[in-house]
Fold this protein.
Amino acid sequence: MRMRCVALSLTFIPLLTFGSVSAIKVGLAFDLGGRNDQGFNQAAYQGARRAIAEAGGEVLTFEPKKLAEVGAGIPKLAQQGANLIIGVGFSNNAAVTAAAAKYPTTFFVTVDDLPKGPNTAGLRFREQEGSFLAGYLAGKQSTTGRIGFIGGVDLPVIRRFRAGFEAGVKFACSSCEVKSVYVSTTSQGFNDPATAQQLAAKLLAGGADIIYAAAGASGLGVIEQIKAQPCLKAANLPQGVKFLADPYKGVPRSAAEQKLCAGDTRPTFFIGVDVNQNALGDFDKNPATLNHGLTSMLKRVDNAVYTIIKDTAESRPWRSGDRSFGLSNGGVALAIDQYNKALISADMQANLKKVEDLIVSGTLKVPAK
């Protein structure tokens, strides 16, 4: 599922350019969780480092330690002389818009939102498209017909994840049920793995065998709960829920898991988000045994950040407005690798490609809310 990455925009402003490749200084202001959150922030950082390695220059960063500090890095990076400043996450958007008005010769970007001003751009994603594929896979391979979704906060961007996922599940399995919950009502919901783990435990108790978390660093709590409860037992299923087929019957398991999950059981899975988190489901450090990361819905923040830095460094005319990334231009994808390839048959991979083609062609319309 490799796609080439092409940036799209709504507005073209040819007068704004950046003149020197070697002198570019990129400012990266993270959201909560920081550069090593194994998710959204980390992807942005990787994209920036890749672009700078090719174009030259340097990356300045700002990592908020608490919610009140989110956005504070935008003006600080401008004061440090950054030519291109990228706010990672919608929480940085107000600060981006304000700083763009104050520093009209500096370029500003928000990842996941649309700032205002001719020297600004928004890197936004059609998360619903990749989430539809993840939902389709979950619907086809759930062994209980119960599937969970955990969002960080009930916001438009997370609703796109949820809408696409729910639609994909229903497209694959009309009788399947998706239970959706949210970690918090504030952006702290993207950095609260403890609460996410509690929510995951409740979903598993309700019979969900697959949980998709669009919750930033909170998703690590979901993975911890799957690690603590790697299978559902028939005797513990809620009333009205029973095991269906077992598509993972032939996948070898570790001795410890065989013992823990003896009898009439089915494995539990998480679906990762933003970056490839499949390896986090390799609880026994052996890719040959059953992995508990079914797949990851890649939100290619790295590609988007890489593209806009390269465009700026190479003095391409600045294009303000919305730059949209989806299945058609490398913005989203499902991760299939050594860790989960045994979970997803060749026939299923072919079906996923057919569904992807239907979405890209416009034949299949994916809801965004």
Summary: Residues 52 and 198 are 40 Å apart (CA to CA). The radius of gyration is 21 Å.
